[in-house]
Amino acid sequence: MRSWINHDAAAQQLDVLLFDAFSAHCLANTVEPLRAANTFAGRQVYAWRFLTLDGGPAVSSSGMEVRAHGRLADCSGDLLIAMPSYDFLRHATVATARALKSAALRYKALAGFDTGAWLLAQAGLLEARRATIHWEELGRFTEAFPDVQAERARQVWDGNRITCTGALAAFDTMMELIGDQHGAALRLEVATLFMAPEATETQDPILVRGKSVARAVAVMQANLETPLPIAAVARKAGRSQKDLEARMKAELGATPQAVYRRLRLIHARKLVLETVLSVSEIALRCGYDDPSALTRAFKAEFGTTPRALRSSN
Fold first, then answer.
1. The HTH araC/xylS-type domain covers which part of the protein (predicted)?
2. CA distances from 213 to 33, 59, 98, 235, 253 (A)
3. From CA 157, how far away is CA 130, in angstroms rounded?
4. CB atoms < 10 A from the CB of 97, how many?
5. Could you tell me the residue ranges of all domains in the chain?
6. What is the per-residue pLDDT across 131-176, written as a single tens digit (0 to 9) for each?
């Protein structure tokens, strides 16, 4: 757990500092998980704003214009994410450095996504810190900022400083933030929505954090109606039950049993909201022989019953 992260009921304020030629892909991968987290949590657990140094609009590398919510100098919050992307050297000015130094006093944590680490380092905000940057710039970054402990990693968390390498790493970083603040259940639900590697089976060695966990979750997803014993899930994932339990606990912060139950209940909620199936039929499709058992588990997980949720929607 990161000490700067707010773990109570209040929404966390995240601001993205945009510069011309920012990556729209990186921006989407940063804010869409937050939007999904709010939806699945049933309340606003995250708020976000798009900022610029002067309060004017920023134009992405693909020509998409984003209207800023305000000037950086006028804002404060929990986390500020600098996102210069492609034209970062043009934005590495004295004015930018001054603005980021000032922002460091108003935000609990600062992050540099894509090439954002360069701007943070230039402002002296990464001295004696571990950090990463888009790998195309890693060599030049290491030479320019010898006081920064540059690492060839997808994302680096060092106290209240976060850096990551690009759009895909930005998604991973936001997933980790969601998991840290709100637990593995919400993180897994968001991952499932976006078909993230931790919720689907994939062989891509770059994207997968843990192939065994990804395979195990995929096995669970494929066997919601007739749940398998965890030992069988582990065998299909190529691991012993004890090993899978340790890996899943480390990567998702929950036991295989808890993850499996959550996946079944996520599916149940989807059927409640998107079909006219009876609660009894939904229970059977989600591995519950007794609709009462589903209702109890559903209420414990989501704070409402299937019937009440359907009525309210």
1. 214-312
2. 20, 39, 44, 12, 12
3. 8
4. 17
5. 12-178, 195-253, 259-312
6. 999 998 999 999 999 999 999 999 999 999 999 999 999 999 999 9
